[in-house]
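pasting Thymidylate kinase for the record, 205 residues
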Amino acid sequence: MSTGRFISFEGIDGAGKTTHIDAVEQAWRAAGHEVVRTREPGGTALAESLRELVLHQPMDALTEALLVFAARRDHVQQVIAPALARGAWVLCDRFTDATFAYQGAGRGFDLQVLAQLEGWVQQGLQPELTLLFDLPPAVAAARLRDARQPDRFESLDEAFFERVRGGYLARQAADPQRFALVQADAAPQAVAAQVRAALQSRGLA
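structre below
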């Protein structure tokens, strides 16, 4: 049985997750917890290699989904499950909700197929808390403009990200107990306060 804690941070590119993941990691370490900070796709050598393919090589939605779940399987087996078993607190920048949002809602891929892959790969494993950083895609795009060279996803149009946002909100509506919705277009201090409140409500701060 897992004795650790597992939370994920979700949201479209430009939502500002990284700053708040940094703050949570620092707070948890200061409290004396073993913290495993990781990301998806990625988190292992194999998964990082698959991430590069997904972000930079052309492929159809099924290939994309299979690669993401292959990366996730290795990540869960090699990093997340062992960390939880030894009592570590795991911070993950994106997890399966991103697949339903990007490949499902964004690409229009079959959600039932994604759900079947989710069951096979995770065998019931989910974060106990998912912080969903929600903001309009136009705001996210303005934040990202000139920040870095866009990958295959970041270069897609605003309509794609509207669908992704809708996919995230659909996941949140289907499992509201797991999610905390963060209004990410608020002032940074207000966003940080929302994050702290969500963590405190679950005994994670």
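Residues 61-85 form the longest helix (25 residues).
The radius of gyration is 16 Å.
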